[in-house]
Description:
Layout: E1 2-8, H1 15-26, E2 36-45, E3 53-62, E4 65-73, H2 76-105
Parallel strand pairs: 1-2
Antiparallel strand pairs: 2-3, 3-4
Amino acid sequence: MMNISVKAVHFHADEKLVTYIEKKINRLTRYFDRSIDAEVHLKLQDTGGRVREKITEIKLHVPGGWMMDKKTGRTFESAINASVVTLKRQLLRHKEKMSTRGALEE
């Protein structure tokens, strides 16, 4: 089971965006079967132009530590997608480390 908290900094994230983020992050449970807590921070970066960069920061709390990824994109969805790919890789690496550590202890 995954506990996900989404925080939008200085703006209101609509329900559709929050649902999208939760759906994407919940997919990470496929790669790691232990409990995971996720904190998602959404920010707008003012670059002086008309289009403001979207920043997503995702922190995953897994048994044995934290994983974090920060991405910037034109949309929150594209930044979330890129982060999920990175975090999937980190989770698989973490899972592998844990299983080799477990095998060494036996």
